[in-house]
Amino acid sequence: MTRVMVFGGAGYIGSHTCKELSEHGYDPVTFDNLSEGKAEFVKWGELIEGDIRNREQIEAACRKIRPSAAIHFAAYAYVGESVTNPSIYYENNVVGSLNIAQALEAAGSIPLIFSSSCATYGAPDVARIAETTPQVPINPYGRSKLMVEHMLEDFAHAYGLRSVSLRYFNAAGGDVAGQIGEAHRVETHLIPRAILSGMGVIEDFSVFGTDFDTPDGTAIRDYIHVTDLARAHVAACDYLLKGGATDQFNLGVGKGYSVLEIIRAVEGTLGKKVPFLKAARRAGDPAMLIADGTKAKSLLGFEPTNSDLGTIVNTAAAWHLAHQHKPNRPI
Predict the structure, then answer these.
(1) Which CATH number is 82's domain given?
(2) Res 326: pLDDT
(3) pTM to 2 decimals?
(4) Catalytic residues
(5) Hey, is 281 helix, strand or coil?
(6) Which domain holds residue 307?
């Protein structure tokens, strides 16, 4: 079986990707320091405990595993925290990614799939965001992701290290089989927070902004099911192993839902009201962020199949109802 090193494979998207890799004939090996990920989520393949800030540990893992490709999820991803403590974001997300790229290049230019973000675009004033939309991130988290994208382009030109950067929009939902789900140390995402509020687990669920220029006044976002994201990583792995060139792709559905639409969907699934507080807009929050996924469909052959709102909310709720996970307060 073709081995794939998955940095951050014990996390939310990483663990779903390991499952998808395994189901498509790959042998995933997780490399994770378990600061954000969970050992119990490593159900498909081996776990190597290590830190991407330690290049020697990465090199030792590469010598042991001899992967044919690698996927990099091991980033800090709390926007608010990146503003108050940018140092750890540049150390982990940028320096850690440099260590990975250097180790993969030294091991024979092992191709890499990088978990990037739509946060690299900032707050563009366009109806649909394409890969050609200017990238002007507005927080250290987004800047750290963009720095890595530029670094990988430079490594491709200088050393022949091929990579694919996948710019996610809003990852959501849970494994249909219920084996894994979203259980962050600090939960900031809308759908799980709405579910947790409806369950009575949290009491500080806020809607940030009710005066946007949208039909119901709340912000609209593009939500993609985590299983579809995992499938996209498998498609990117196939693409690189067949000789594909370094490139960047948006991963979204091309359709958006407002915050209030999400809340109503959660209420329908739970069969109860979801209490929420009305709060002011957050600085830099655009009214609408929707992906143009044409390029991923054309070059990777990827198209979401599980990302209707019902599937997203139902699978997310099933996970939280079964596990009663209680995160810390959002940063």
Answers:
(1) 3.40.50.720
(2) 59
(3) 0.94
(4) 141
(5) coil
(6) 172-222+254-323
